[in-house]
């Protein structure tokens, strides 16, 4: 299989400034190991049980990113090992992550998901809501989380101008927030179909699944 070749090719194309998260949801451990052998260490999953099973059986120097929507009652299962939670969309969820991080004597890194697509199905905060969370006193009391930046998903569309407009918007929100949030360093945007546009708009973390591992049969 060409998975390890794909990894090498993407890493070379993206260079040092853009992190590659290999989205391995639904794929068997053997596929992840091929990517690992190609030098990949950041893997992203969207279901906690699947991620926990893979974490248990695969090499321990893998960093696990949760990229899917997170339910509060599932946080405890990822808190011992998750390295970045991409799609945080409420203060309540941040509080829960903080609580579980504290139990595990860890600090957990998170991104706030901003809704930039027009599709109703996509989760996320609007920029104003995110700003309010970051400015709130409750947020400032959460010592076991670190919000390192923003994540967004563009509309699934062939209309490049539209997708570019959405990514440009998220980049501008990121730059605006960064003035106050000195810990901000991650702007996670771009998937298999739109990562080139995302990178040209300033993404520094892309989440690529099917272009590395092949099409998925289900989500
Ligand atoms: C599945 C998924 C991806 C990867 O999608 P591809 O189109 O296969 O690259 C990226 N981000 C999130 C949040 C996902 O759920």
TrEMBL record:
Please give the Gene Ontology molecular function terms for this protein. pyridoxal phosphate binding
Q: List the cofactors.
A: pyridoxal 5'-phosphate
Say yes or no: keyword Transit peptide present.
no
User: Per UniProt, which keywords does this protein have?
Assistant: Pyridoxal phosphate
The record places domain Alanine racemase N-terminal at 3-216
Taken from the record, one Pfam family name reads: Ala_racemase_N
Q: Which residues carry this modification: N6-(pyridoxal phosphate)lysine?
A: 25
The record's PANTHER family line, in alphabetical order, gives: PROLINE SYNTHETASE CO-TRANSCRIBED BACTERIAL HOMOLOG PROTEIN, PYRIDOXAL PHOSPHATE HOMEOSTASIS PROTEIN
Function, please? Answer: Pyridoxal 5'-phosphate (PLP)-binding protein, which is involved in PLP homeostasis.
**Family listed:** Belongs to the pyridoxal phosphate-binding protein YggS/PROSC family.
Q: What is this protein called?
A: Pyridoxal phosphate homeostasis protein
The organism encoding this protein is: Gillisia mitskevichiae
Phylogenetic lineage:
Bacteria, Pseudomonadati, Bacteroidota, Flavobacteriia, Flavobacteriales
């Amino acid at each position: 299989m060409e998975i390890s070749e794909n990894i090498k090719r993407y890493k070379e194309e993206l260079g040092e400034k853009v992190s590659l998260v290999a989205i391995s949801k639904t794929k068997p451990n053997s596929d992840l190991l091929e990517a690992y052998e190609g030098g990949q260490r950041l893997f992203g999953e969207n279901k906690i049980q699947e991620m926990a099973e893979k974490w248990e059986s695969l090499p321990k120097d893998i960093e696990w990113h949760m990229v899917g929507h997170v339910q509060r009652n599932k946080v405890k299962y990822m808190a011992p090992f998750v390295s970045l939670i991409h799609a945080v969309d409420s203060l309540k969820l941040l509080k829960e992550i903080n609580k579980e991080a504290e139990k595990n004597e860890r600090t957990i890194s998170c991104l706030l998901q901003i809704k930039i697509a027009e599709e109703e199905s996509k989760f996320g905060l609007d920029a104003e809501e995110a700003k309010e969370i970051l400015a709130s006193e409750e947020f400032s009391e959460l010592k076991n989380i670190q919000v390192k930046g923003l994540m967004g998903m563009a509309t699934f569309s062939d209309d490049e101008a539209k997708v570019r407009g959405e990514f440009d918007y998220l980049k501008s929100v990121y730059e605006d927030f960064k003035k106050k949030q000195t810990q901000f360093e991650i702007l996670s945007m771009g998937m298999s179909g739109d990562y080139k546009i995302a990178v040209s708009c300033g993404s520094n973390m892309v989440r690529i699944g099917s272009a590395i591992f092949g099409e998925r049969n289900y989500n």
